[in-house]
Amino acid sequence: MCDRVIPYLFILPFLISFVALFLGPALYALVLSFFRYAGYGKATWVGLNNYVVMLDYDVFWIEMRNVVFYWIAHAIPMVILAFGLAVLVNSRLVTRKNFFKPIIFIPQVVASVAAALLFQNFFGTKYGILNNLLGTQIPWLTDMDLARWAVVIVLVWRGTGYWFVICLAGLTTISTEIMEAAVVDGASAWQRLTRITIPLMRKTFLFIFVVDAIVTLRLFAEPNVLAGKPGTLAPVEMAPVINLVVENVRNAQFGLAAATGWLLFIAIAVVSWLQFRIFRVRGEER
Questions:
Q1: 205/167 Cα distance (integer angstroms)
Q2: Which label site among 211, 223, 244, 253 has the fewest CB atoms less than 10 Å from its CB?
Q3: What pTM was computed for the model?
């Protein structure tokens, strides 16, 4: 009996924190999304009205489009860069592997707000490092089209190191015997990469894209710090969906805030499901 109970005692702190800090608030937010509630007084049942209001709100779709753009625009180059660096470091071309691994990972240690502030100085119009080097006055952070790409650059810079480590771990799972057999058969380095390494890394890529999508669709700090002024959020043209949650809470519309959060959760679930479908191999068990 004790042998069965003891393992659960070890995971009990996690279970308690999961229920108290995630599952409980999430279920409460789901219930709250069907009410009109100002944070005090009596809550009024409105059914699906909060969801209808948000789905009819143009700003919701603009901000949803923004986070989808941030995700797609940064995910592909970031994964290519992380995978390329992992292959390079894992190869015989690099001798000091223990030196390069922490160097590449360092940007991930920087907090998202600190990274955004760093690039705010880099992309500043008058005193930014980039404009001073180029001798230009390009409005990187005031032109919304350029500012969106500035956010993408921050995401790529900060995220590459983390996914580099994941790709490196994935490469270690590939049997050296397979590679040696391919060499004996006369396969070139490019053929080994495209026909052996990348297919065998499929589950690693699935993990990367799914987790990165979840993180990016919940983006908040980078666009608001880069384009927002002190005390204000980023303009709608580049704002993430989480901004609507914040604004609804500020306006004491907790039902709308909860509905927005659950609509974002549904969007994340749909995107994750689509990625599982895309990465699934024919004949693989479901």
A1: 8
A2: 211
A3: 0.87
